[in-house]
Structure formats: structure tokens, C-alpha cells
Specification:
disordered N terminus, 5-stranded parallel beta sheet, alpha/beta, 5 strands, about 300 residues, 13 helices
Amino acid sequence: MTKQSVTRLKPGKILDTLGAVKNSLTRVSQRIAEYILFHPVEVTQLSIAQLSRATKAGEATVVRFCRTLGYKGFQDFKMDLAIEMATSDSEESPILDAEVNHQDDIHTIGLKLQATINNVLSETLNLLDMTQVKGAVNALLSSNYVFICGVGSSGITAEDLKNKLMRIGYRVDAVTNNHFMYMQASLLKPGDIAIGISHSGNSPETVHALKLAKEAGATTIVLTHNLGSHIMEYANYYLINGNRQGKLQGDSIGTKTAQLFVLDLLYTLLVQAQPEMVKEQKLRTLNALKSTNSA
């Protein structure tokens, strides 16, 4: 994990946060994390020796893993995990929710996809640090210019945010070509905002663009699922989206829904903070589109 390490987690946030940091852990720690994610109730009943055997990891490694999450040791971690499982709605691992199999009919698949969306939104709300959200909103409210970057599917999300912000009067651009990303990022100034969107947090183009933006003096905001990823090193504010979905569903459903949810939350908070100005700007942009359509 990077220096954006997590402090001791509160019961109710353990499994979701573990899913968000898993990919930045060592291979052995990933094995421990995966076992806990798939067998959380069982883990609350295990000794450290039993968990060590089940994950093929040394007891010292298990202790280091728990300290990575902010705990003194396995007993502290296990106690909070037991509280989380006792107060959760289901004893089943959330990783297994809404898994699609080959025998499902169309209606059943539709219900499972609906459950996936509900789960990933709940996970996202659980992972979001509202202090970080508030900081990002305040930075946007006082910004001169907003630069958004992302590649692949995250680039499409960047374009969606550009559309939202432009409609309410922001000077904004979204860039998905890496050369253009680097040039624009290097020309940013204090008072400008750079938003990097990368689900993995390790997309080299987006990471480098955020690095350049921060070096140029811009305030940086990161949207990612990976709490321990490389892009977090360059974040003034970070927003963590969920990713809870079945193995056969791919990344598109959960990832896209979670990203858009976080960005809609930002947009709504911006509108709430300056309703009269937003109303005026939305009318101006709406009238501009209407005049084009009637021409």
C-alpha cells in the first residue's frame, strides 16, 4: 500500500475497505484478504494458527496484514469483524451476491443485475470519506478551470462529468488522449482542478497526468476503487467507488454505476451550494441548445 494507509477501520467498513485495498497488497496478503472476503463469518471463529494454515501464510504475515489495516493484531481485527458480521443483513459473503450462472433465465439475470447495482451503490457509500467529498466540492466551487482525464471506460466517465459541469457554467475539459492529457496537465495553474479517473488507480497515462498537474500547482481529485494505488500518491482529495459484482459480469456494470454515482453526488452538492447561479447557467446552456435545434 502507499502512504495513504488506512487507520483502524470501523465495524461495517472492514470488508468493503478490504476489497478496495486488496490489489495493492503483497501476493500473500492478497491471499489472506481473499479468504476473509469469501469466508468472513468463518474467520471470526478461527485462531491465528488456523487462518495461517488456511491461507498458507505465516502467523507473522497475518499479524502484519492486520497492522496494515490499522489493527494491533489478529485478535483486534477478528473482534471488529465479528461485530460487523453480527450487525450485517446477511451472513453470506458480499462477493457472492448476484452471481450469474448459466442456468439463469432472462428475468433472473435482470434481478441479479438489479441486486448488483444496489450492492455496489451501498458499497460506494460505505467507502466514501465524506470529509474528502466535502473538500473536493469546496475546491471545485472556487476553481478557475477543471481538467478531467481518464482512459478507456474511465474516459467515457470523464466525458459525462464534463457535460454535467459545463451545463452549470464551469470552464471544463475532458481529455482521453495521453499526449493531450500531458500537455494540458503541465499548463495548469494554482486555482485549477485536475480530476483523474482510474478504476484500478494504476493507469499509467492518468497517473502521469495527475503527477504533472500537481507539480504545476493544480488541486488534484482522484476517483478510483483502489485505495492503495499509485494514483493516490498525487491526490489532494480522493473518492473511492465500489466494485461489488459477480465474476461473470465483468467490470462494466458495477464500475460504471459506482463512478457515475460518485460524480452525480459531486454535481448535486455543487448545485445545492449555489442554486441561483446554477439555475441561471443551466437556463443559458439549455437555451443555447434550443436555439441550435430550431436553426
